[in-house]
Write a structure and sequence with these properties.
Layout lengths: L7 H23 L11 H4 L4 H8 L7 H13 L7 H21 L14 E5 L2 E4 L3 E2 L4 E2 L4 E7 L4 H6 L9 E9 L24
Antiparallel strand pairs: 1-2, 3-4, 5-6
């Protein structure tokens, strides 16, 4: 659910999983007993409404509380006068809203940062690389605009299904390729671990 775009199929599956989890949580800790009602916090019950709210408002990451908390933290950092902090906080919020409104009307006023940080080389198309060279005592090799990548297998389907699409396990392949850096569309982290597969085999 914490993504900026989500498909209808994913929403349907998330609805089944979230509702099942919430119901099992209530049966385990609440057991329909009034004296145990305090175990069901609002955030627990909210999972039943996440899908409906996503359909009406969009993904929670676009409107959830932590986004507002981050904004409040940013505004708090801009306060320089300790006198009447809440008044200053309100004024900073109003000022930021005015700036955002003006930039939405006239986008040209929002000039992008000029140049790149020191040590980077512009590759075009919004990409850059480190300008350092790879060297040794006997030779120096100038870095070209390429990347050395290792390939990984497709996710293990059994583990993916058993984990409700949350554990994506891939094995590193022996294939190594050198590609143009502009062919890279996105990056993901592959975290080393030794899981026990449904077959009973423990991967190294």
């Amino acid at each position: 659910m914490c993504q900026h775009a989500i498909s209808t199929q994913d929403l349907q599956q998330a609805n089944v999983l979230l509702c099942a989890w919430e119901w099992e949580f209530e049966l385990l800790y609440y057991q329909l007993r009034e004296d145990c009602l305090h175990f069901v916090h609002p955030c627990i019950h909210q999972t039943n409404h996440l899908i409906v709210e996503t359909i009406q408002k969009g993904p929670p990451v676009c409107y959830a509380q932590w986004t507002m908390e981050r904004i409040i933290g940013n505004l708090g950092q801009e306060i320089r006068q300790p006198l009447q902090p809440y008044a200053n906080l309100s004024e900073e919020g109003v000022r930021r809203c005015k700036v955002n409104t003006l930039l939405s009307i006239i986008p040209d006023l929002n000039e992008p940062p000029k140049g790149l940080p020191e040590g980077l080389v512009d590759l075009g198309d919004g990409m850059a690389r480190d300008s350092q060279t790879i060297g040794s005592n006997t030779h120096v090799v100038q870095c070209e605009d390429v990347a050395i990548i290792c390939l990984y297998s497709h996710p293990d389907e059994d583990l993916l299904q058993l984990s409700s699409q949350t554990v994506v396990y891939c094995s590193q392949l022996e294939d190594i390729y050198v590609i143009d850096v502009k062919q890279i569309l996105s990056m993901v982290a592959i975290i080393p671990h030794t899981p026990r597969l449904p077959s009973g085999v423990t991967e190294a």
